[in-house]
Amino acid sequence: MSGSGADRIGMKHGAGGRAMRELIERVFVGRFDPDPRATVGLDAMDDGAAIRLGDRWLVITTDSHVVHPIFFPGGDIGRLAICGTVNDLAMMGAPEVLGLTCAVIVEEGFPASDLERVQESMQAACREASACVLTGDTKVMGRREIDGLVLNTTGVALADRIVTDRGLRPGDAILVTGPIADHGLAILAARHGLSLEGDLVSDVAPLNGLVRAALAAGGDSIVAMKDPTRGGVASALHEMAAKSGVGVVVDERAVPLRAAARAAAELVGVDPLHVANEGKALVGVRAEAADRVLEAIRAHPLGKEAAIIGRASAERPGGVILDTGVGRRLLAEPIGELMPRIC
Amino acid sequence: MSGSGADRIGMKHGAGGRAMRELIERVFVGRFDPDPRATVGLDAMDDGAAIRLGDRWLVITTDSHVVHPIFFPGGDIGRLAICGTVNDLAMMGAPEVLGLTCAVIVEEGFPASDLERVQESMQAACREASACVLTGDTKVMGRREIDGLVLNTTGVALADRIVTDRGLRPGDAILVTGPIADHGLAILAARHGLSLEGDLVSDVAPLNGLVRAALAAGGDSIVAMKDPTRGGVASALHEMAAKSGVGVVVDERAVPLRAAARAAAELVGVDPLHVANEGKALVGVRAEAADRVLEAIRAHPLGKEAAIIGRASAERPGGVILDTGVGRRLLAEPIGELMPRIC
Fold first, then answer.
1. Which residues of A touch B105 (CB under 8 A)?
2. Residues A140 and B11 sit within 8 Å (Cβ to Cβ)
3. Smallest CA–CA separation between A324 and chain B, in Å?
4. Which of A41, A45, B108, B324 has the fewest Cβ atoms within 10 angstroms?
5. A5-159 maps to which CATH number?
6. How remote is the C-alpha of B233 from its chain's centroid?
């Protein structure tokens, strides 16, 4: 956005990386009056906001979903919308959903049967997450004014304790709840008709049950959570490191990755650490509780392949260091567009 | 959506009338599991939902905004988004906003300066409404995948008492808080470059201060509220009548209408009762409190031209009867597309 030429929005501004963060900071975060009542407000740029309500917190989060294609291996835009919002609440330490909203924007001429299919998928995801849609909105735009279907879901929840993305201290363990990069690569394969689709399906799933189990096992020892969506694990770890004021060292060989995802990533030449997930969480845990929390997560159906992939360090605050087993290098923060409309 | 030919979404399905209601009922309302904890849930199809929280209610509402053009006389999409959501909360009896979310979807190539202008407008409206944006989301879609800029705002509020759109009883007075049809006609004039723009500007404004004053004066005597947005006063009254199981008789000569709006409506051949408003409310009040509430609303800067325009009746439940002064006729419920993308 800086300097030369036309000052216009580019695809990189929606990609979950540094360019998006800079745009949001410039246009929105610094310009809205902060809410003095918010424990976690807009300026935190966390997965959602938290505001004190009696002796608890009301957590609120919003996401628009523009994924293309609408139907993809392992899910669709409806499942993505419900899970994305449920997961953002869970990442704030609020796995019990109070309610969801669903706003639909649809293109004139869109098949009604596809809308019904998306609704069914939303309903199924709601049941998995023990969540209900409380209210909604419907808008229609003309042909070629919007590409098919866009959804917005907002969620509210109550929490006894807030977990942010900035609570890491040197020595804390960092867990990932399962194999990475499946969502982004499944979308990429679907979009470009890659023949390797095979068992490459999106991981899109509601994580609130898993988070509930982790919090029950870990309690106050769970100090940071984030779901590595746009920008992948690399972007999420960079954000956690920078906000916490610590470095993060990742053991590359410990990061779970399915063979199909590894093959697809190699074929298209992307780093799986930069690829979006929609059913995984990064969990920062005090070292002494790490094994206990790992065990609790592995006992959950969505966490069987969870692993400790790294730790927070006093070294290089804000940086993410990748230990490849043969050496160490800085893991770059994604700047912009790896894949547009991934979620 | 019924019967012959292609079962596809049409512009009428976003127009706030009967076709939209039927689509929503068919695809969404009847298909999502209802939340047993909700006092006002999805099936109510009210301005928002209400869920019990201790001895109060949490009210939540969501709206996407697709107005075209983005900047129009009297406002822009940013002001519309904040006011629309604040007003929906207020219509539920919850004028004290706990917080708002703001999700932005922007087209690649959109001028950053326009985005900043929209943000400034949102911030100004937030101050008028004593509301804060707590959290947000940003997505970018490619060129020609979305027309410029779309916003979603969701709002939450706490209320001691819920006001729905279905509380009318025969004999209740119906007030409107000021002159109607300004918003829709201002958009229409801007879109088609009509030269009559003159003092025809949108009424878009946050009504929560006015509603606070009305509730303070009327208390439990205020039994129904609704803001006549898409589909105008006609559509809102039809909904209130049908849900309340009463008829509504409107005194056409009592309905406030500015000269500029009257002239524009005549020129383009639309009934002002069918045109969208973004800064007006319909308020149903027990007859004995009507004058007191009218006085309180008129004392508010946004309610100076408020008027009692009709009353609920036992006659023709679900119907709206227009008394023109020379006779009475049924006021039709809008079915579909008067003007697309009006909000």
1. 64, 66, 150
2. yes
3. 33
4. B324
5. 3.30.1330.10
6. 9
Q: What angle do CA B55, B56, B57 make, to 5 degrees?
A: 140
In the three-class reduction of DSSP (H, G, I as helix; E, B as strand; rest coil), residue B193 is classed as coil
Each residue's pLDDT tens digit, B225-245:
999 999 999 999 999 999 999
Are the beta carbons of B177 and B161 closer than 8 angstroms? no
**Which of A23, A107, A137, A149 is the mutation pick for testing B, counting most B CBs within 10 A?**
A137
| Cβ density class B256-283: b for 16+ within 10 Å, e for less | bbbebbeebbeeeebbbbbbbbbbbbbb
- pLDDT tens, A97-135? 999 999 999 999 999 999 999 999 999 999 999 999 999
**Token pair in block for residue A76:** 């669709």
Contact at CB, A141 and B113, closer than 8 angstroms: no
Answer yes or no: are the C-beta atoms of A59 and A94 closer than 8 Å: yes
Contact B132 A7 (CB under 8 A): no
Residue B199, SS3? coil
Cis amide linkage into residue A73, ω under 30° from 0: no
Cis ω before A179 (30° cut-off from 0): no
Contact predicate B58/B155, CB 8 Å: no
Q: Is A137 within 8 Å of B62 when comparing Cβ atoms?
A: yes
pTM for this one? Answer: 0.95
Integer Rg of chain B from CA? 19
Which superfamily does A173-330 belong to?
PurM-like C-terminal domain (3.90.650.10)
ipTM: 0.95
Decide if A13 contacts A23 (C-beta within 8 A): yes
d(Cα A340, Cα A270) in Å, to the nearest integer? 14
How far is Cα A304 from Cα A177, in angstroms, rounded to an integer?
8
Tell me if A5-159 shares its fold with A173-330: no
Task: Give the distance, in angstroms, between the CA of residue A306 and the centroid of all CA atoms in the same chain.
Answer: 16
pLDDT in tens, A144-164: 999 999 999 999 999 999 999
Summarised one tens digit per residue, pLDDT across range A300-340 is 999 999 999 999 999 999 999 999 999 999 998 887 767 88
Predicted local distance difference test score (pLDDT) of residue B335: 79
Does B62 contact A141 at a Cβ distance shorter than 8 Å? no
B133 phi/psi in degrees, rounded to 5: -85, 125
Instruction: Give the separation between CA A80 and CA A205, rounded to whole angstroms.
Output: 8
Q: How far is CA B237 from CA A26, A87, B175, B176, in A?
A: 43, 39, 11, 11
Q: Where are the domains of chain B?
A: 5-159, 173-330
